[in-house]
Structures are given as structure tokens and as C-alpha cells.
Amino acid sequence: MNLSRQKVMDGIRSKVETNSVSTSKANEKPSEKITSTTTTIIADIVEVNREKKLVSVKGPSGKITVVTVKNPALLADVNVGEQVKVIYYDAMAASITTPKK
């Protein structure tokens, strides 16, 4: 997960989701499928806990999510009421092979 401060003039929260799928070529063994989703939201900061490296953000749906920040330096000048850009990366891979006899 990536967290960065975002200067947004209109204060509107937003969400953008991007999906990608890649598959093996026809008749290629093993058959594989990789799916990834990137979700980018502009969210309002509603709580900052620098000691525990946590930020609570309110996204475009109104849901409050607690985000763990790996780099505590990012929290140095983040305050309640500001907006941040949060990027989530989800990926899944599957492989289908012939069973061993």
C-alpha cells in the first residue's frame, strides 16, 4: 500500500480502480492466469496515530479505513482534515498443471 499527501482544492473524495489480467498463450503448459487490481482513492484523514504508525482515512463511500504506514517519516507533517492519496495493490496468480502419475 502506498500513501502520499494530496493537495486537492475541491475537497472531493474519489476512487479509481484498474484491473489487469494476463494469461498464458494458447496450449501453453502450465496454463496460468494472473489478475491484479490497483485501487487509488483520495481520502480525508480523520485520525493519525504516529506512535502506532496508523492513519484512519474516510474514503469516497464514507467508510473509514485504518491504514498502516510502513515509513513513519510520511507521518511527520500529516494532520487530521488533510487529504491523502492511498494506493492499494491486489494480485492473484493461478497455475493449472497436469497431475503427476
Give a structural overview:
By secondary structure, the protein is mostly beta strands. Helices cover 0% and strands 56% of the residues. The protein has no helices and six strands. The chain has strands at residues 2-5, 14-23, 31-49, 54-58, 64-68, 83-96. Strands 1, 2, 3, 4, 5 and 6 form a six-stranded antiparallel beta sheet that branches. The termini are far apart. The model has no long low-confidence stretch (mean pLDDT 79).
Search tags:
101 residues, mainly beta, six-stranded antiparallel beta sheet
Task: Describe the secondary structure blueprint for this structure.
Layout: E1 2-5, E2 14-23, E3 31-49, E4 54-58, E5 64-68, E6 83-96
Antiparallel strand pairs: 1-6, 2-3, 3-4, 3-6, 4-5
Low-confidence stretches: none
Q: Alpha-carbon distance between the termini?
A: 42 Å
Please state the overall shape, judged from the principal axes of the Cα atoms. elongated
Q: What is the multimeric organization of the chains shown?
A: single chain
Strand content: over 45%
Largest sheet: 6 strands, antiparallel
Strand count:
6
Query: What structural class do the secondary elements suggest?
Result: mainly beta
Indicate the percent of residues in helices: under 10%
Q: What Rg is obtained from the alpha carbons, in whole angstroms?
A: 19 Å
Give the ordered list of helices and strands. EEEEEE
Q: Give the count of helical stretches.
A: 0
